[in-house]
Structure formats: structure tokens, C-alpha cells
Amino acid sequence: MKVFLTLLFSIIFTTTLWSQDILVKDLDDEIITSFQKTTTKTFKIQNFSNTEKSIRIKQNIDKIQGGTTFVICYDDNCSKKNQPIIIKLPANSISNEIKIMLNGGLSNFNSTAYLEFIDLNIDNTVKKEISLKVTEKNTKDIFFEKGDIVVNSFFPNPAVKNAIMEYKISSYESEAKITLQNVLGSIVSTYELSPDQNKLNINTEDLNPGVYFYTLSIKDEGLATRKLIVKK
Asked: In this structure, how many other beta carbons lie within 10 angstroms of the beta carbon of residue 205?
């Protein structure tokens, strides 16, 4: 029983970071992208206290060798090395998705980003290390892969007339979908991924030019998010 409880607590703390009244949820330990491509991860912060919280997010890195950049964004506010962002959370609430974007440059790169989540109400800090990797892997690449599920990123990206996503989903998987959002977080469209098909083709001529984010969800669980750029 002691071994079981130790293992259980170990699993819990690999996916969440806890300190006093705030919880950092679903923050990955590693982000990998390729040359001149962007990988986006998302996480949330939960305030389970009975008072409003102000959380400052600081990071130690932004511009990296070869043109690589590392940015954290919440709504339309983005944080760089010397520009922390502050998120205000009402009592007993959870934040919208916070996006971490690793934009690949022109060379291989390995480093570590150090993040601090500072509870300004009680001057308490949660710290997190994230491994950053940029490789030369071709990114008609895998967007998400687990078990019998393989979903590739949209291509071309930037897209002008259309964007294509190739995928493979087993017949026993259901309720798989891609949700497209604008930079303000508003849902633009939702596309079902049928196990009977292997390709999703969306008409981007109907979209305004700009930056969008697409998220893969299965049974309403968001699994991965990336950026799609639409040009005219």
C-alpha cells in the first residue's frame, strides 16, 4: 500500500504543480519543433481559494540562437524574457488556455526554459523547467500520436486556398474533432475526424488572413494545439 501511494502521488505531481491556493495544470516537460515551424502547447492555472488571485508568469528566455523564439501568451497578451504577464483569477476559478509557443529558427537547438508562477497575494512561487528542442525533422510532421491515433499537422502552412490534415484514427475511437480558433480564443469552426476517412481539407479562402490555432480533441479532451497561418 505504501508503494502504491508513493507511485500515485508521483503520477499526480508530474502533470500538475501545486503551491498554496493555485494549481498549474497540464504543463508539459518538453517542447519539440523543427526549422521555421511553430509548436504550441497549452496549460491552465486554477485558483481554488475563496479570494481573487493575481498570478505573475516569468520566464528566463525569449530570443535564441538561429532565430528561435519562445513566447507565452494569454488572450492577446504575450510574455517575453523581461516582460512577465499577470493573470487575474476570480475566486474558485480556472483560467482560459495559456499558450506556450516555440518558434523554430534555422539551426538545431537544445536548452531549458525556467518558468516562475508567482502568487502576488501571498508572495509564493511555483517553478517549472521545460526542455526546448529544435530539430531539422521535416514537418509535414506529426501533430499528435498515441496508440492507434496518428494526426499530422496542417499543410501547407501558411495556407492560401486550403489546408490539409492527414490522419489515422481507429474505428473504435469516437468524437475526434479539430477546433479552429482565432487569436482571441473565439471558435471559428469545428471539423469532425471520421475514422472512415484519412484526410481533412478545409477551405481557407473563407477565412480572414491572420493567425489561427487548431486543437485536436477526443471526447472533448483537448490533446494538442498548433498554429495555422492564413494568407491571401
From this structure: 11
For residue 57, the surrounding DSSP H or E stretch is strand 53-59
Residues 71/84, Cβ–Cβ less than 8 Å: no
- List the grid coordinates of 222: 483537448
Q: Give the strands of the sheet with 162-168, arranged side by side.
A: 142-146, 149-152, 162-168, 199-203
**Are 65 and 111 contacting, i.e. CB atoms less than 8 angstroms apart?**
no
What is the 3-class SS of 129-198, one letter each residue? EEEEEEECCCCCCEEEEECCEEEECCECCCECCEEEEEEECCCCCCCEEEEEEECCCCEEEEEECCCCCC
Q: What's the angle, vertex CA 224, arms to CA 32 and CA 132, rounded to 5?
A: 20
Cis before 195 (ω within 30)? no
Q: Going by C-beta distance under 8 Å and a sequence separation of 6 or more, which residues neighbour residue 136?
A: 34, 35, 108
Cβ atoms of 162 and 202 closer than 8 Å = yes
From first to last of its 232 residues, the chain has per-residue pLDDT tens of 444 334 443 434 434 565 568 899 888 888 888 777 788 888 999 998 999 999 999 988 866 767 888 889 998 788 766 788 999 999 999 999 998 888 887 778 888 989 999 999 888 888 999 988 887 655 457 888 776 788 889 988 889 889 999 888 877 666 889 999 999 889 999 999 888 888 899 999 989 999 999 999 888 888 889 999 998 7
Q: Report the C-alpha gap between 151 and 165 in whole angstroms.
A: 7
